[in-house]
Structure formats: structure tokens, C-alpha cells
Design brief:
mainly alpha, two-stranded antiparallel ribbon, 2 strands
Length: 120
């Protein structure tokens, strides 16, 4: 089961879910597989248009809304960058591997330059 992220805006609470329906909508609208779309959302290379499309697909508990309604919600949250934390949380709930990958990247240590010479 894919979990929902609640997003409170004023007195209204929106439910954001990266449901299968939302994923299919994004693939159809963007013309590429969900993995590529996720990469663009994570890296920020998809721009505000992609972020707005993702919010439109994922709002209404994954049932979707019109993109204009999604942009209104984004504006109320302070814009696409300010709202990114909610979409990222929803993506992690739908794709737990994203959490694992983020954790692995954070725990990798770079030991280069810290190697002692065998001569001592």
C-alpha cells in the first residue's frame, strides 16, 4: 500500500500520494518512464512545469487534480522549491528504495588522503 502525505495549507489539508494512477498520468503527460521522471524531480532538471505536473497527478490522494489547482497549492506553500519537501516525502513513501539510496550516499565516507604510508 502506498502511503499518503498530508499537506496543510491554511485550514485545508491536501493529501499527496504517488499512486499508480499518478505515475501513469505522469508517464503519459511527460512521454517517458517514471524512473526518468523521478530522476528529473530529484535532480531539479525537470523545472517548475514538471513539479506542477507531479503535484497535479499526486494531489487528491493520488487521484489527481487540474494543473491550475496544483499550481495554486504550490503558490500557497511558497512555490515549487518550498513545497519540494512534501513531494519528496510522498516519493519516498511510494519508492522506499529512494530512502535506502539516500542513506547509503550519506554514510559513504571518503578515505582518500587518509592512508598512512607503509614506511610509517
Amino acid at each position: 500500500m502506498i502511503s499518503t502525505v498530508s499537506v496543510k495549507v491554511g485550514k485545508k489539508t491536501h493529501k499527496l500520494k504517488v499512486s499508480t494512477r499518478a505515475q501513469v498520468r505522469l508517464e503519459e503527460e511527460q512521454g517517458k518512464p517514471i524512473g526518468e521522471i523521478l530522476d528529473q524531480l530529484i535532480s531539479g532538471t525537470g523545472g517548475v512545469k514538471l513539479v506542477s505536473a507531479a503535484w497535479a497527478a499526486c494531489l487528491n490522494d493520488g487521484g489527481g487534480v487540474e494543473v491550475e489547482e496544483a499550481m495554486d497549492v504550490l503558490d500557497q506553500l511558497g512555490g515549487a522549491n518550498a513545497a519540494a519537501i512534501y513531494l519528496a516525502d510522498a516519493m519516498r513513501k511510494a519508492f522506499p528504495v529512494l530512502d535506502a539510496a539516500a542513506g547509503a550516499a550519506e554514510t559513504e565516507e571518503d578515505f582518500s588522503g587518509n592512508v598512512e604510508s607503509p614506511a610509517g
